[in-house]
């Protein structure tokens, strides 16, 4: 299958059934962007740029001003006044003028050092090399297109081909100049326990940036930004989404210039960034992804969901149902012991749950969050038999065993810190700031990465551990250098690469106080994540709804927590708490003995149902049918299209509500679907007229309708 064509000029066209992306080398050697959008047979002709007044033209040219010419990797200093893709330090003069040098078509997608990238099977990659003869810099721009996805991957490699060091101040993974148009910007912001809040604004003139300087991709802003046609809905309108396969300091921006050109930039954050490139060295950026759908926000989510499952998350778990679990955190917090954990394991077995997860509090001296991180051996008083024996006892009850770890951290009150105070991130002459009373280990140092690898590898080898919750509970400070923050990420990815390769059957779950580092970088190693510490049903609805714009249900975990909720105090029914997490691939419980005793039959029923339907949630199609402050309605259709789950919530009840009815999506028009109560419908009836919903009977009411396709 030909995905990339190269014609005279050269002009490069990447095209599959979902999209087309084209660029050409113009008469001045500038790599000019032609189009990104629907898969048209012919790319549109280059924009004809009228004569502007008071702009700067390229030498000896009447109309060619870089300030409105759409480019592939723009730089500053020759007439383009928008934010540049690549910016050098100004000490030796930062002017750059990148011009075409050569290109190559690659059938194998090249790796990017220790950075995670999307898997390249069924893809083709184009590498276009640009150069600046004065600065003696070369830039490889990599573009990958797949046979069957509405996604283009981009990254760049900067090479110093000169004889003096060069300072890199800004290195975007991608720069995309789109033609003028009426768009809205969609992005997701939040904080601890209220992640993934959607915000939309009309695309302003000027620059709008989302970013992180916290050392994690952060819950303040998920590294995802979409440009959507101003009147786009869930099912109509052209939508462009953009994200990074990266978990650290990033920036994504959109800028509309005075002539309407729209520039999207994504990559490492230039905050505090200064990377010295010695002669002969190169610098590899994280990979960026551009998704496109002509079918609205729902269409764009389907593009991302399919892509993330096929090309990002570990293949080993793609088709593996995730075990239901009982997690000790909100059941007991730090008050855990061998005896109490085994008691919970007995309860878990009785409830039909498949795995017991021992959360925080199990290691030496860890009786609260002020101490012991770094000393990863079982507390001899509370866990005298040690982790291998405990894991085996749990296994003997027919359960899998999972454990919580926070490997990147150290408590000042720990043996590790006392032995290696220099392993914690700090700035010269300063006592570092604390977050949750802890410090961050400096993973930019090879000996720190090796130390963490050694104890973790030994722990995983010593005990039958099926699952690891990999937590990270503070933002980074005291780094004093964006380059150091990036080196940290390279160290972390090396560590995760080694561990997941050597322990391929362990399910790793990414967590950072919930969703403080929920991104495609971490999900390249871990099949699922703990997206939020908020388990209240109303809070969860917004979080899952927001996260679902980018992430498929396959990567989400949810458990039934206590009521009143520990984060916001809300009292809610067990059923509402269960239903709010229903689309997630992994289901669990985090309740103490008394709560379990009170709700045993219902918990048995829910966990049984979760176990039976687990396979349906993998690779499922997820549709946001309705989202208002009062109502959330989701449709989840199993990959084999045989079962449709309709999950409908009404937040606050009210008397005499209007008739409730909802239209479904993506069904087979002539097929028959039967509800639990025996009512039957044709697919086209459900899609065009809809399904009636019950009137709510209480606040936070949740209704689950399951439709089976029978013919
Ligand atoms: C973080 C996680 C929680 C729990 C605690 C343990 O806050 O998000 O789920 O694991 O750490 O300390």
Describe this structure in words.
By secondary structure, the protein is of the alpha+beta class. The protein has 12 helices and 38 strands. The strands form 7 sheets. Strands 6, 7, 8, 9, 11, 12, 14, 15, 19 and 20 form a 10-stranded antiparallel β-sheet that branches. An 8-stranded parallel β-barrel has the order 21-22-23-26-27-28-29-30, surrounded by 4 helices. Strand 3 (20-25) and strand 4 form a beta hairpin.
Ligands (ions, cofactors included) = alpha-D-galactopyranose
Q: Which term fits the overall shape?
A: globular
The overall pLDDT, averaged over residues, is 96
Cα end-to-end separation: 35 Å
- Radius of gyration, CA atoms, in whole angstroms: 26 Å
Number of strands: 38
For the sheet with most strands, the description reads:
10 strands, antiparallel
Q: Which structural class fits the helix and strand makeup?
A: alpha+beta
**Helix run count:** 12
Q: Segments where pLDDT lies below 50 for 5+ residues?
A: none
Beta-strand content estimate = 25-35%
| Residue share in helix | 10-25%
What topology emerges from the helices and strands here?
Layout: E1 4-7, E2 11-15, E3 20-25, E4 31-37, E5 86-88, E6 99-106, E7 123-132, E8 137-146, E9 151-160, E10 166-178, E11 183-191, E12 194-202, E13 206-211, E14 221-229, E15 239-244, E16 250-256, E17 262-268, E18 275-277, E19 282-284, E20 288-293, H1 296-312, E21 325-327, H2 329-332, H3 338-351, E22 355-358, H4 386-396, E23 400-405, E24 409-410, H5 415-419, E25 439-440, H6 446-462, E26 467-470, H7 482-502, E27 507-510, E28 528-530, H8 537-547, E29 556-560, H9 574-580, E30 586-589, H10 593-598, H11 600-617, E31 621-627, E32 631-637, E33 643-650, E34 661-662, E35 672-675, E36 680-682, H12 683-688, E37 691-692, E38 701-709
Parallel strand pairs: 21-22, 21-30, 22-23, 23-26, 26-27, 27-28, 28-29, 29-30
Antiparallel strand pairs: 1-2, 2-3, 3-4, 5-10, 6-7, 7-8, 8-9, 9-19, 9-20, 10-17, 10-18, 11-12, 11-14, 13-16, 14-15, 15-20, 16-17, 24-25, 31-32, 32-33, 33-38, 34-37, 35-36, 35-38
Helix pairs in contact: 6-7, 8-9
Bound molecules: alpha-D-galactopyranose.
């Amino acid at each position: 299958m030909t995905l990339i064509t190269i014609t005279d000029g050269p002009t490069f066209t990447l095209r599959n059934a979902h999209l087309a992306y084209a660029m050409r080398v113009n008469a001045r050697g500038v790599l000019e962007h032609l189009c990104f959008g629907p898969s048209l047979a012919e790319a549109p002709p280059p924009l004809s740029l009228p004569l502007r007044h008071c702009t700067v033209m390229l030498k000896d040219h009447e109309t060619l001003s870089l300030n409105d010419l759409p480019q592939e990797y723009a730089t500053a200093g020759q007439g383009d006044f928008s934010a540049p893709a690549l910016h050098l330090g100004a000490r030796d003069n930062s002017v750059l003028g990148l011009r075409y040098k050569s290109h190559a078509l690659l059938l194998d997608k090249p790796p990017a050092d220790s950075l995670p990238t999307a898997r390249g099977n069924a893809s083709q990659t184009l590498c276009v090399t640009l150069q600046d003869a004065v600065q003696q810099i070369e830039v490889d721009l990599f573009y990958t297109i797949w046979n069957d996805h509405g996604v283009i991957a981009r990254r760049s490699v900067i090479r110093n081909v000169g004889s003096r060091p060069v300072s890199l101040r800004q290195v975007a993974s991608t720069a995309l100049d789109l033609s003028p148009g009426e768009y809205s910007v969609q992005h997701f912001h939040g904080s601890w326990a209220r992640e993934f809040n959607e915000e939309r604004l009309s695309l302003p003139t000027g620059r709008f940036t989302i970013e992180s300087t916290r050392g994690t991709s952060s819950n303040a802003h998920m590294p995802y930004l979409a440009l959507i046609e101003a009147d786009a809905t869930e099912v109509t309108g052209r939508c462009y989404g953009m994200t990074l396969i990266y978990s650290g300091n990033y920036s994504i921006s959109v800028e509309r210039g005075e002539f309407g050109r729209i520039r999207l930039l994504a990559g490492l954050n230039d905050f505090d960034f200064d990377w010295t490139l010695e002669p002969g060295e190169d610098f590899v950026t994280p990979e960026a992804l551009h998704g496109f759908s002509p079918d609205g926000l729902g269409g764009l989510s389907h593009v991302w969901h399919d892509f993330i499952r096929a090309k990002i998350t570990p293949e080993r778990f793609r088709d593996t149902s995730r075990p239901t679990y009982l997690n000790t955190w909100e059941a007991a917090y730090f008050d855990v012991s061998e005896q109490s954990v085994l008691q919970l394991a007995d309860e878990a077995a009785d409830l039909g749950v498949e795995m017991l997860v021992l959360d925080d509090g199990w290691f030496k001296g860890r009786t609260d969050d002020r101490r012991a991180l770094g000393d990863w051996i079982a507390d001899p008083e509370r866990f005298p038999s040690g982790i291998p024996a405990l894991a085996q006892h749990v296994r003997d009850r027919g359960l899998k065993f999972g454990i919580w770890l926070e490997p990147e951290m150290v408590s000042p009150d720990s043996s590790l810190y006392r032995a290696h105070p220099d392993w914690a991130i700090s700035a010269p002459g300063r006592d570092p700031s604390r977050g949750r009373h802890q410090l961050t280990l400096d993973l930019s140092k090879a000996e720190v990465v090796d130390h963490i690898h050694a104890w973790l590898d030994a722990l995983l080898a010593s005990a039958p551990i099926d699952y690891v919750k990999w937590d990270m509970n503070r933002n980074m400070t005291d780094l004093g250098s964006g380059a150091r923050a990036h080196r940290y990420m390279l160290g972390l990815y090396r560590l995760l690469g080694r561990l997941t390769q050597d322990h391929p059957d362990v399910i790793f779950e990414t967590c950072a106080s919930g969703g403080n580092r929920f991104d495609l970088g971490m999900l390249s190693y871990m099949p699922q994540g703990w997206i939020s510490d908020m388990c209240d049903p109303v809070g969860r609805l917004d979080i899952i709804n927001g996260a679902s714009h980018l992430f498929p249900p396959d990567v989400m975990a949810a458990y039934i927590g206590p009521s009143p909720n520990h984060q916001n105090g809300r009292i809610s029914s067990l059923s509402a708490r269960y239903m709010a997490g229903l689309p997630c691939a992994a289901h669990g419980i985090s309740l103490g003995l008394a709560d379990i005793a009170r709700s045993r039959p219902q918990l048995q029923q829910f966990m049984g149902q979760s176990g039976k339907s687990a396979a349906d949630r993998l690779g499922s199609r997820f549709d946001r049918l309705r989202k208002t402050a009062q109502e959330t309605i989701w449709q989840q259709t199993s990959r084999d299209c045989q079962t449709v789950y309709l999950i409908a919530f009404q937040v606050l009840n009210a008397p005499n509500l209007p008739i409730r009815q909802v239209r479904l999506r993506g069904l087979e028009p002539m097929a028959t679907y039967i509800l639990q109560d025996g009512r039957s419908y044709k697919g086209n009836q459900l899609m065009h007229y809809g399904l009636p919903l019950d009137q709510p009977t209480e606040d936070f009411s949740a209704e689950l309708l399951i439709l089976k396709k029978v013919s």
